[in-house]
Write a structure and sequence with these properties.
The protein is α+β, with helices and mostly antiparallel strands. It has seven helices and ten strands. It has helices spanning 9-38, 86-92, 99-103, 117-127, 141-144, 151-155, 205-210; strands at 43-44, 50-53, 56-59, 69-74, 107-113, 133-135, 158-161, 164-167, 177-183, 189-196. It starts with 8 loop residues before the first helix and ends in a 35-residue tail after the last helix.
Length: 245
């Protein structure tokens, strides 16, 4: 059990109110960061990208599905992988419920992986997900957005990821991220935002709930407890089991 002082209600309330001041500061800071994110300049995409989808080949502009905004989760599933990244799979478990809300608010959400479409579809069936998921196999999209890396990239001392040079020991041929795009009425596509590493963490509602649970995330190393949802033991974990007397 974590060591916590046990106090009366009034002392707890005083400590809780002190924390509330900081929580409100964090909320106001988040609002400010959100406003600055919306104010970022945009980049017109001149390069042509194509993807394999269950409905056939589509350009990046066609992935918008008639909406003006597109949010792409760069899912770590490389060619020949037997399963997707556990962390990406954990995040993906939270996407399906958001789809109707986003789609009715002019936003298309989908995942992109470099694995061939047949491999993506096989893993999607295993996981039971509904969100759109397309393949950039044979296209430069993943490489241009710095979530996939060639053997030559990984042979250097550093790799360009998360807008910085990271040590190659911390790199992989596939890494996670999230990118956003806008399509105007003329069909021109603009890159508006990208986020990597822990940047998309707020999409993982489970972590947000755990942050408010008594033991928090209760992990020795980042998400070391996470499994693909069909890999957990059949019986939910419990700190202790009591038998009837």
């Amino acid at each position: 059990m974590h060591e916590h002082p046990i106090v009366g209600r009034e002392e707890w309330l005083a400590a809780r109110k002190a924390l509330l001041v900081k929580e409100k500061e964090a909320t106001r800071l988040r609002d400010k960061i959100n406003a600055e994110r919306l104010a970022l300049p945009w980049v017109r995409l001149e390069k042509h990208y194509e993807f394999d989808t269950p409905q056939g080949r589509k350009t990046l502009a066609e992935l918008f599905g008639g909406r003006s905004q597109l949010v792409v989760y760069h899912f770590m599933l490389g060619p020949g992988w037997k399963a997707g990244c556990p962390g990406c799979s954990f995040l993906a478990d939270h996407l399906d419920g958001a789809l109707p809300h986003l789609e009715h608010h002019d936003v298309t959400l989908l995942a992109v992986s470099r694995a061939p479409l047949a491999e993506i579809e096989a893993y999607r069936r295993r996981m039971g997900w509904r969100f759109p998921w397309v393949s950039s196999f044979g296209d430069d999209f993943n490489f241009d957005f710095h979530v996939s890396f060639t053997a030559a990239d990984l042979a250097g001392e550093t790799v360009d990821y998360n807008f910085t040079a990271i040590d190659r020991a911390n790199a992989h041929d596939e890494l996670p991220g999230l990118s956003a795009f806008y399509r105007d009425e003329a069909g021109t596509v603009f890159h508006t935002y990208s986020s990597y590493a822990r940047g998309p963490e707020e999409l993982i509602g489970t972590l947000m709930i755990l942050d408010r649970a008594p033991k928090g995330r209760n992990e020795a190393d980042g998400m070391d407890w996470v499994r693909r949802h069909d890999e957990y033991e059949a019986e939910p974990a419990a700190a202790a089991r009591r038998t009837a007397s």
